[in-house]
Amino acid sequence: MKNRSSYLQLIPFILPQSTTITLAFICTLLFTTLWPIQAWLAGEMTEYIGRGDTNSIARLAGLTAVVFIVKGIVQYGQDSLMAKAALTIALNLRKVVYSHLQKLSLNYFEVAKTGDLTYRLTEDIDRIGEVVNQFFHDFVPCILQLIVVLGYMLWLNWQLTMATLVLAPLMAIIIGAFGERLLQYFRRSQNRISNLSALLTEVLGGIRLVQAFAAEDYELSRFAQEAEGNCQAKYQAEKAKAFQIVVVGFLTLMSVVAIFFLGGWQISQNNLTGKEFVSYLAGVALLIDPITHTTNNYNSFKEGQASADKIFELLAIEPSVTEPKNAIALQVVTGKVEYNSVSFAYVPQTPVINNLSLTASPGETIALVGSSGAGKSTLVNLLPRFYNVDQGDILIDGVNIKNVTLKSLRQQIGIVPQETTLFSGTIAQNIAFGKTDLDLQGIEKAAKIANAHQFISELSQGYFTYVGERGVNLSGGQRQRITIARAILLNPPILILDEATSALDSESEDLVQEALERIMQERTVFVIAHRLATVRRADRILVLEKGQIVESGNHQELLNKHGIYASFYARQFQAN
Ligand SMILES: Nc1ncnc2c1ncn2[C@@H]1O[C@H](COP(=O)(O)OP(=O)(O)OP(=O)(O)O)[C@@H](O)[C@H]1O
């Protein structure tokens, strides 16, 4: 079962912390050694109290105080060092998972739920950190205490100890059985809560639509269903834990009764003195705490296991788009792009691009037109390798894009998407997206070319104006011009432009159009054209149908042909 190994997979994250863990462990050993000393002191004290030996009582009280202080110091060392190690392990795991997630290919994100992933990177990793902390901080010391105290009890009276341990295997079996049941409930509860998180991300992201369609009640019932499912699973887990406490408590009580019974019998047989029995009972009392902790820790480990399974499942997913080990960095000089007999399908046997070949000369603007679903977006998405081609090759400046690093490939291709996405941060950060050092002069220059400088300057904080997650305080046209400025700053030799279909007011439209025309100069451009002006100005228009180029030429040539483009033009553009 993979869940057995999910904790083992944490070992590479634990090993780098071994120095801190070892130091903490030394503190733990000292701390644990002091436990039986306390039990021994209690036994000695009883004897002196019986004798009324006040001097010895005072000496022992002083010794007990020293033991207490030393115990406090090593306890602090153990707690703080273990916490440091566990938190660092969780931090490193979080970084690794996030970096892995960034490398996964688009086809993974098309099916994954954002909220679910958010939950894994936050709650699940937090839980693993807590479990690691608990393991070293609580579980290991408890086990050591159990071993040391049991050793002391065995040394004191092995017959009595063995007799009381008869119930231990039964206790372990019962705790184990409860643990498996708990794991199921924790899995169910965590699945529900990550579904809930996914639902929230979706609904809050589309709250405008929810309100517009008066779908609040519908969304509330979906929310309630997941929330109730989680509540139910958690309740089941809490009930199982509560029952487990009763059963383990009953068995512990049985053991204590057995100890008294057997202890009394041993004293009557002169095998045990009263003093030894008191020391023995002090030892038994010292056992109860670590037994309770061990049981609780075991339950928490089961909860953590459900999280660890999910995290390592995610880490096991391989990106479908990868680069070869000896990948070279692509240096684009001219920007010539070739598609050679390229085929691609999202779903096997359903080709979306079908044995397509094309060559874009350096600096050429190619407009892609065709009906919805013809494969225009797919065709351009193959260029930055968002997906791998199934057959054929794509070359840039004669170099197969399969053989170059993804970073160098994508740095050469600017994308102005139809959907304008602004990230939380300032306008300057959004224009210089992906760069940590802000070149303000360059940003301003790019914004000027993108017709964005003027409106940005009019904002109270200028380039340092904070735009929300979705840039809600900017108009559609303004957002588009920021994304154009972003591409201009990158200054890529190849540009992919997905023209927005949504209508802007004519002034805004003119500003966007002007910005686009500027950015299209001196680069190889693929534009999914929705505007007549773009189509007309393109050096070449490719008409796509079912993933194939069915017509090619400039606007006038294609009109003269009276073919598909001419009728498409009549339908699509003549109304403009
Ligand atoms: N991620 C995906 N997974 C599965 N099928 C997809 C995916 N993206 C697109 N498709 C399918 O591939 C075909 C081509 O889609 P594509 O988006 O490339 O067409 P398009 O010409 O750009 O259309 P539009 O003009 O409507 O944007 C369509 O049938 C579409 O349903």
From TrEMBL:
Residues 23-303 form the ABC transmembrane type-1 domain. Residues 337-571 form the ABC transporter domain. Keywords: ATP-binding, Membrane, Nucleotide-binding, Transmembrane, Transmembrane helix, Transport. It is a multi-pass membrane protein. It is found in: Cell membrane. SUPFAM superfamilies: ABC transporter transmembrane region (SSF90123), P-loop containing nucleoside triphosphate hydrolases (SSF52540). One of its GO terms (molecular function) is ATP hydrolysis activity. One of its GO terms (cellular component) is plasma membrane. InterPro entries: AAA+_ATPase, ABC1_TM_dom, ABC1_TM_sf, ABC_transporter-like_ATP-bd, ABC_transporter-like_CS, P-loop_NTPase, Type_1_exporter. The chain crosses the membrane at residues 12-37, 57-74, 135-155, 161-183, 242-265. It comes from the Bacteria. PANTHER family: ATP-BINDING CASSETTE SUB-FAMILY B MEMBER 10, MITOCHONDRIAL (PTHR43394:SF1), ATP-DEPENDENT PERMEASE MDL1, MITOCHONDRIAL (PTHR43394). This is ABC transporter ATP-binding protein. It comes from Waterburya agarophytonicola KI4.
